[in-house]
Design goal:
Elements lengths: L3 E4 L2 H9 L3 E7 L9 E7 L5 E9 L4 H14 L8 E4 L6 H7 L4 E4 L1 H13 L7 H15 L4 H14 L2 H10 L23 H13 L6 H30 L9 H8 L2 H15 L2 E7 L6 E7 L3 E11 L3 E8 L2 E6 L2 E2 L2 H6 L4 H9 L16 H5 L7 H4 L8 H19 L3 H15 L4 E3 L13 E3 L5
Parallel strand pairs: 2-5, 5-6
Antiparallel strand pairs: 1-4, 2-3, 3-4, 7-8, 8-9, 9-10, 10-11, 11-12, 13-14
């Protein structure tokens, strides 16, 4: 008896092997005629793009079956031990099973769904509070969610105690306070690469529902699923090529940190680092007083947005590397020329403005590779197998009959619709093809060589059959 289907191709395995640190998981429904729930597991690559790395289709949801499917995933993907964070919805029933099967990973909750659940629960009729009290409580919940550190979290929570009715405060303390590290922005300790919501999964689910007919048979479901996956991969690679082409015209002088980072990093991570370099230029790090011969000295640090950061002392780090202790609005951090304990480094695995400011103050080159995780390296991103084409993804089947031809043509035209929507001129090509076939004229497609001096027509009408 069929209990579930595990689907993962070689490209999915390779993508997860290369980027296993963050997993986004969710379920979607009503995509096949048996109404079997479809579980999507997604990773985020070194250029900030999403990749589906596995799909489960189950007959009945249950802990035993989900645990068996996760065991299968782990057996096919040894890199599962490198997964650091699993992002999902609080109402995702199987999140506890993921936590058990990925003991080294931290569970994080989609912030959008957290706030939506809070709103639904607080506005419920059974919550004993006046409408204006509920509105005030929800506004405080928003500020609690964006707390930068534990101090700000506790201060805003105290505000809730003063303003909120007892029922709302009890609700928060019972449901949300015990799991605050899973949803409060400033309290998250594991890498999430700026993914606080599961919007990536929501976007993929919407595309699946646009292409896959509601309640389709399993045969059609998997045909359409592969179609969406391949189109997403091709779209990702097309966007990357455009960005890399634009990068070749960057105006940074050779030898500068900006130029060197452009050669080292993917376009996405390069922009993040550029932002941190710009922030570091707004930091005024100056010596105010020598303390003694141990080289300890008081320093003061001022940053944009009127942030005052007191640099309490300079310390000696093992191996002779100098470091400083900073008291920032987000708490005390330790900074050296190659590391920092701030949340940006912890959650993104890239160098921060504190490191760049200290290196500039010490007269060091801003460029460094120590703080950069392998996932962000352009060489690591490029060194991967070429994605499969639509033709390569097609199953090896005998010559089909008329009904099967219609089914396969429907799959291909869905792909054409997605691709044609990207460039208006492609629609004209499709219209010429439809007009020729409707008039009973033979037609074929001829693709011109990219570097050819002679531009052949893309569509040849009246072309004799081979």
């Amino acid at each position: 008896m069929l209990k579930g289907i595990y689907y993962q191709d070689d490209t999915m395995k390779n993508n997860f092997h290369r980027y296993p640190e963050l997993l986004l998981v969710d379920a979607t429904y009503k995509l096949n005629q048996r109404q079997m729930p479809v579980y999507i597991m997604m990773s985020v690559d070194g250029n900030g793009d999403s990749d589906i790395v596995c799909v489960f289709v189950v007959v009945l949801e249950g802990a035993e079956l989900m645990a068996a499917l996760l065991d299968m995933f782990k057996s096919h993907n040894p890199a599962w031990e490198k997964t650091k964070t699993i992002l999902t919805d609080k109402e995702f029933a199987e999140k506890s099973i993921y936590r058990e099967n990925f003991p080294g990973a931290t569970l994080q909750l989609c912030l959008f769904h957290v706030l939506r659940t809070m709103r639904r629960d607080v506005l419920a009729a059974k919550m004993a509070a006046r409408p204006n009290q509920k509105k005030t409580a929800l506004e405080i919940f928003q500020r609690i969610a964006s707390s930068a550190d534990a101090t700000q979290y506790e201060a805003t929570r105290e505000e809730l105690r003063r303003a909120g009715p007892r029922s709302v405060v009890d609700y928060f303390d019972r449901v949300w306070h015990p799991i605050r590290e899973q949803w409060v922005v400033g309290l998250k300790q594991s890498c999430h690469y700026n993914n606080h919501t599961s919007s990536r999964l929501e976007c993929i689910n919407q595309k699946l529902k646009q292409v896959i007919a509601k309640f389709s048979c399993l045969n059609s479901f998997f045909h359409d699923l592969k179609l969406v996956i391949v189109c997403l991969r091709q779209d990702r690679d097309s966007r990357l090529a455009k960005v890399l082409m634009k990068r070749s015209f960057l105006s940074h002088d050779p030898g500068t940190a900006e130029f060197l980072f452009s050669k080292l990093l993917t376009p996405y991570s390069y922009q993040l680092v550029l932002e941190r370099i710009e922030l570091s230029k707004q930091i005024d790090l100056s010596q105010s007083q020598h303390i003694d011969s141990s080289h300890e000295k008081d320093l003061s640090l001022q940053i944009d947005l009127s942030e005052q950061i007191e640099l309490s002392k300079q310390i000696e780090i093992g191996g002779g590397e100098e470091g400083v202790t900073l008291q920032t609005p987000s708490g005390t951090i330790q900074v050296t020329p190659t590391s920092c304990t701030c949340q940006f480094v912890r959650t993104n695995e890239l160098p921060c403005e504190h490191v760049f400011a200290l290196r500039a103050n010490l007269g060091l080159q801003l460029y460094l590779e120590d703080c950069v995780a392998q996932r962000w390296l352009l060489g690591h991103y490029r060194d991967r197998p070429a994605p499969a084409t639509l033709e390569q993804e097609r199953d090896d089947v005998p010559v089909p009959g008329a009904g099967r031809v219609y089914d396969e043509a429907l799959v291909e035209t869905k792909a054409l619709a997605m691709l044609a929507s990207e460039q208006p001129q492609r629609l004209q090509v499709l219209r010429k093809l439809v007009r020729a076939w409707r008039d009973g004229q033979p037609a074929d497609v001829v693709v011109s060589e990219p570097n050819s001096a002679v531009k052949r027509p893309f569509l040849n009408e009246h072309m004799p059959p081979p």
